Amino acid sequence: KQALAHEVEDALVDAELDKKIRNGDKVTVDWDEAAGALTAKPEPKITNMGGFGLFGMGLAGVTLGGTQLGLALAGAVLIGIGVGYVVASVAYRYAMKKLRKKYRLPEPPKKFSGFNAGVIGGLFGAALGPWLWGMAPIHTAVPSVTLGALGLISLLAVYYTAKGALAMARWLARVVMRRGPPPPKAARRFSRWAKAGLVAAGLALGVTMGGVPYVASQPLQARLGAVVSPELKIHAMPQAFTDEVRLLMEANPVGRDVLEGLRDRGGVVRIPAMLMMVEDEGVGAHYQAMLDHVSIPFDSVKDHGWTMEEFMASPDKQRQLAREYRATLSHELRHAMQYRRSILSPGVILGRAIEFEWEAYLTDHDFVHAELLADPQADIGSEVWGYEAFLDSFDGRLKDIENSGIYKHDSRIDAPFFNDMIARRRADWPRHAAEGYLLLAQRSPARATYYLGKAAAAEAGIQN
How many domains does the chain have? Predict the structure, then answer.
């Protein structure tokens, strides 16, 4: 042992090595078979800076590429962070493995990563949970993960900033006091219960961050929209409006069918968030699957001569607007129902199918038809024009919808599900049209002869 100690001491007699030892750097002593003696080499100073450098390059490149592809800034940043982190981690681990093998360095102790796994599992579980339970389309997982990840990044930024500031203060104190580097910390060992607690804490944090965007969807959309797109004048509709929409749907057999399609696995009807915003010209309302919201035009309030403050403060005005938009809302809620079908159903994942619009337009037509069956004098407002246009020509109306500039980006998916639905409606249309014309004859006695003639022509299979 004494002889070996002398050999080690001889190997370390080197001015450069002595300086490194005094600075607190590690020195590796190894046996050199060719020389037949011990050799001493300074251990390579491999720090996290290499990993951070690779991470930064990956982050910058992927984020820039994502932005150029037209992704939203937040989405591009998150994609960059995710891909950059993966690339940096793989490259860093590979480099460390090669260097450890070259210099015969010991493997570092493995760290317990249950908390991180819990956070990731909780985040994605909370984002996908509403879809799995039938509460929302699968598309809503995207904003839930995006906003949840942004929240986590914000928390981590605060945590690591505080941790870095503390480390910097301790380092400055050691420099001022001329103290050497702190002794290396031994890897912490956790008991089984401590590990379970860390996993549970990670799950709780992940579920919270991933669940808040869904639970608070309506106010979040309104508040974030006011910051990101103030020109859209996004407002969350008051509860009185949503409650009236539900009552109106429940009072109509077609509306009840739509609500059934919005029922989750627990039997609860999940109506999408109701918003108001500035719409493009010609758009009466829209449904957005990614955010699971139905929006009606901002001008609908102005058209009544109300201010937004008056509308928001008056439940009566809110219920009145819901009644006026009831047929249109049945159309939009049908879209919400379409996107909650199985992801294997045609058009659900990519959307933009003209068949979706055909089904939705038939829904609001049938909604009006059901109201007229209950009361031919029902107040259906301007809906009567679209209703009669469908009666006049089933295929002509479908073609008009397809050729509309609003749906110029929608294409046919030619799926058996929709083809069969259209074929059934087309076969039954002469009977349906005749019934509709008879209802219009009762509604407008002055034009009864005109509508009775159309009813007879429809029954004979003659349409414009």
Answer: 4
CA dist 123 and 429 (Å) reads 49
Q: Extract the tokens encoding 175.
A: 């420099």
Rg over alpha carbons for the chain, rounded to the nearest Å, is 34
Rounded to an integer, what distance in angstroms lies between the CA atom of residue 440 and that of residue 451? 7
State the pLDDT at residue 40.
61
Q: Hey, what are 138's tokens?
A: 């699968």
CA dist., res. 423 & res. 419, Å (int): 6
Do the beta carbons of residue 243 and residue 252 sit within 8 Å?
A: no
Q: Could you tell me if 209 and 124 are in contact, meaning their C-beta atoms sit under 8 angstroms apart?
A: no
Nearest Cα residue to 291 out of 279, 270, 273, 276: 273
At 410, list the tokens.
């929608």
Residue 208 to residue 155: CA distance in whole angstroms? 13
Which residue in this structure is represented by tokens 């460390």? 96
Residue 414 lies in a domain: yes
In three-state secondary structure terms, 28 is strand
The residue segments making up the domain with residue 405 are 341-464
463, 386: one domain? yes
Cβ neighbours of 368 (radius 10 Å): 25
Rounded to a whole number, what is the distance in angstroms from the first to the last CA of the chain?
108
Residue found under tokens 């944090």: 205
Do 418 and 448 have their domain in common? yes
Burial class from Cβ neighbours inside 10 Å (0-12, 13-18, 19+) for residue 356 reads buried
Residue 28, strand partner residues: 41
Q: Hey, which residues does 40 pair with through a beta bridge?
A: 29
Q: What is the pLDDT of residue 63?
A: 45
Mean pLDDT of 150-171: 83
The whole-angstrom separation of Cα 252 and Cα 330 is 10
Say if residues 77 and 98 touch (Cβ distance below 8 Å).
Answer: no
Strand (E) or helix (H) holding 221: helix 217-228
- Same domain for 25 and 137, yes or no, is no
Write down the pLDDT at residue 311: 96
pLDDT digits (tens, 9 = 90+) for 355-413: 999 999 999 999 999 999 999 999 998 898 999 999 999 999 999 999 988 888 888 99
CB 242 within 8 A of CB 274: yes
- Written as six digits, the tokens of 57 are 């390059």
The pLDDT tens digits of the residues spanning 103-123 come to 777 776 677 788 888 998 999
